[in-house]
């Protein structure tokens, strides 16, 4: 019967089909000899066709084995089905050409239909095993939930194709939905503007899985396999999207948190509170005891807050603040938050009392009543105002009603001060003072540091200490650096014959709007005077590449300021010292001041820094030298130079 000729057509159709493929495609699929390949294919099909008609169990087993071979070679299901379709088409043409009854084709069509369905079934099984091996085993946080969900779903898929009655949770009951409903995730995806897209992908996964389930139950495995491949792609997109959200969450500021909450509060007309804690003495503890100890303190605070507010309602921000969020609060909950604050203070004191200084927290509770109207910038200003106020009174938790705070005269004064400061810097209304760096032995000034001063309209000099925190907090440092450099350029003759050092923040160099002028001004000044630059050690650690890019074009002497704050990236520091003419290390003043009280730890740190510096051929400067006692101790240690009121006070030279 002509049906028995079906396998005999395979070899000729195989050769014709291979002729239509590129050499690259054939090489990729491991086809070296076309004749041998097609002959082998014909033999396989003869066996399969025979088993299809005589023994379906053997037929199924052979198809599964054959599919495993295809899968390992990387042959796609679409490629295989395309060959089979061409085979059937040619066979049907032959039946029609010879005028034979159409019923003769039914057996061939039935064979190909069952064969392709079994191939798809086997591809599903093999893809599940492969996918399970590719899932990362060491993910954390949100991405871990995505991976765990996929693993669970793969087991469900495996059970479904074997005929078991399995299903996945409805979308609203899914673990991933609980992530999407969490405040921290919403803040992160809102900042990336990816919330809607991630929600859409998650919804599609559930819709596609229902389709997949229906096709599997009806044993229609080809569309089931295609849908499963789409589900895999959607899971990959979801994983990448959620990983991006996690990355953003690690870089959030308290401003980002508040901005999101305000936007949602206005939209939903719901009140909320934000408890914001500021760990104190952490910078010094990181310097002396290392970041591991500092992180232990942060972890202790964070775990207590999560136990109270919930896992996803607590965010650790890059500006050093830790935020606990509560929606729809009442007075009793506010009282509980106050108790939590004092409980945390006691716990930190008890657990870390062996540290010197003992760590502590300051904090403030912002209450946003329902329907309160406040724009983003005002809210940001309120955070900075409240943070400053809480640091001045760390023993108490400041409870601040935002509605009342907006109308507060002290807040308005604070904001007007910031506006005044910004205006002064933008207009370049800064004065320049200098303070000497003196030999510890002779007292002679070897060079001078340029300091900025602001002068009030009434002629009063505003100390830098009163405004420097505001300048950093409100991100005005680039305006200050630019104002100082412009003033220096206008008055460079005043400093003729003197060695001077100026301070430049890496943040300034990150502003495209000011960077070119900064570079041009530095070039001008280095040609006109003996100029050096002070850079903080933390800047070298955090912005090494940027600083290297900027300063490699200038022959500037460099002093590393606030030394002792970047232990975690010592290799960057050494690279910088080897690449640039670092002449001085200036020890962080917080260590120096502690010598007055006889701090042995501070003495040990200064001694270690001095010894290391001298071994690298670098001189050491100690700042805040205000007494003979401190001077004598520094001389004993071997510190080379000193800066402080004991030797000279800042002198105003350019108004």
UniProtKB/TrEMBL annotation:
<dbReference type="GO" id="GO:0071111">
    <property type="term" value="F:cyclic-guanylate-specific phosphodiesterase activity"/>
</dbReference>
<dbReference type="Pfam" id="PF00563">
    <property type="entry name" value="EAL"/>
</dbReference>
<dbReference type="InterPro" id="IPR050706">
    <property type="entry name" value="Cyclic-di-GMP_PDE-like"/>
</dbReference>
<protein>
    <submittedName>
        <fullName>EAL domain-containing protein (Putative c-di-GMP-specific phosphodiesterase class I)</fullName>
    </submittedName>
</protein>
<dbReference type="InterPro" id="IPR001633">
    <property type="entry name" value="EAL_dom"/>
</dbReference>
<dbReference type="InterPro" id="IPR035919">
    <property type="entry name" value="EAL_sf"/>
</dbReference>
<feature type="domain" description="EAL">
    <location>
        <begin position="414"/>
        <end position="655"/>
    </location>
</feature>
């Amino acid at each position: 019967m002509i049906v028995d000729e079906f396998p005999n057509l395979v070899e000729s159709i195989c050769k014709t089909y291979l002729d239509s493929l590129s050499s690259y495609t054939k090489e990729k699929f491991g086809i070296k000899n076309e004749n041998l390949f097609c002959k082998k294919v014909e033999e396989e099909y003869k066996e399969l066709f025979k088993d299809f008609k005589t023994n379906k169990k053997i037929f199924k087993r052979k198809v599964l084995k054959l599919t495993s071979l295809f899968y390992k070679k990387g042959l796609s299901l679409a490629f295989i089905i395309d060959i089979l379709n061409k085979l059937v088409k040619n066979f049907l043409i032959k039946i029609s050409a010879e005028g034979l009854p159409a019923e003769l084709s039914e057996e061939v069509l039935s064979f190909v239909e069952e064969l392709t369905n079994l191939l798809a079934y086997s591809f599903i099984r093999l893809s599940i095993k492969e996918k399970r091996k590719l899932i990362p085993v060491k993910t954390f946080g949100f991405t871990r939930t995505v991976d765990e969900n996929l693993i669970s779903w793969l087991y469900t898929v495996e059970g479904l194709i074997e005929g078991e009655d399995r299903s996945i949770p409805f979308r609203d009951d899914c673990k991933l939905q609980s992530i999407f409903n969490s405040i921290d995730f919403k803040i992160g995806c809102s900042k990336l503007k990816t919330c809607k897209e991630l929600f859409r992908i998650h919804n599609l996964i559930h819709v596609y899985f229902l389709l997949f389930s229906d096709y599997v139950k009806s044993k229609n495995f080809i569309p089931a396999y295609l849908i499963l491949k789409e589900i895999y792609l959607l899971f990959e997109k979801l994983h990448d999207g959620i990983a991006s959200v996690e990355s953003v969450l690690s870089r959030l500021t308290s401003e980002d948190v508040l901005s999101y909450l305000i936007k949602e509060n206005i939209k939903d007309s719901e009140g909320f509170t934000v408890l914001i804690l500021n760990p104190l003495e952490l910078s010094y503890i990181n310097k002396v005891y290392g970041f591991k100890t500092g992180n232990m303190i942060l972890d202790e605070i964070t775990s207590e807050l999560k136990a109270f507010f919930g896992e996803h309602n607590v965010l650790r921000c890059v500006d050093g603040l830790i935020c606990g969020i509560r929606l729809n609060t009442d007075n009793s909950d506010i009282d509980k938050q106050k108790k939590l604050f004092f409980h945390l203070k006691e716990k930190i004191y008890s657990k870390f009392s062996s540290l010197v200084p003992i760590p502590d927290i300051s904090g403030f509770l912002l209450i946003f009543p329902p329907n309160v109207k406040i724009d983003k910038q005002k809210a940001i200003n309120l955070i900075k105002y409240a943070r400053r106020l809480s640091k001045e009174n760390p023993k108490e938790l400041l409870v601040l009603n935002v509605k009342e705070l907006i109308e507060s005269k002290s807040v308005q004064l604070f904001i007007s001060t910031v506006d005044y400061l910004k205006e002064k810097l933008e207009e370049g209304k800064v004065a320049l003072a200098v303070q000497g760096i003196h030999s510890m032995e002779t007292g002679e000034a070897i060079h001078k540091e340029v300091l900025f001063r602001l002068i009030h309209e009434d002629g009063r000099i505003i100390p830098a200490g009163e405004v420097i925190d505001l300048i950093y907090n409100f991100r005005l440092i680039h305006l200050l650096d630019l104002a100082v450099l412009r003033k220096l350029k206008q008055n460079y003759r005043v400093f003729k014959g003197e060695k001077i050092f100026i301070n430049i923040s890496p943040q300034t160099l990150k502003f495209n709007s000011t960077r070119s002028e900064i570079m041009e001004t530095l070039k001008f000044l280095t040609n006109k005077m003996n100029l050096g630059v002070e850079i903080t050690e933390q800047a070298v650690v955090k912005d090494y590449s940027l600083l290297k890019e900027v300063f490699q074009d200038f022959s500037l002497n460099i002093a590393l300021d606030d030394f002792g704050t970047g232990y975690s990236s010592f290799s960057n520091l050494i690279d910088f010292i080897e690449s640039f003419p670092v002449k001085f290390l200036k020890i962080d003043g917080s260590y120096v001041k502690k010598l007055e009280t006889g701090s042995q730890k501070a003495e040990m740190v200064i001694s270690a820094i001095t010894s290391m510096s001298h071994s690298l051929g670098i001189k050491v400067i100690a700042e805040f030298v205000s007494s003979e006692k401190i001077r004598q101790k520094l001389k004993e240690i071997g510190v080379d130079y000193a800066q402080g009121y004991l030797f000279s006070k800042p002198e105003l030279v350019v108004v």
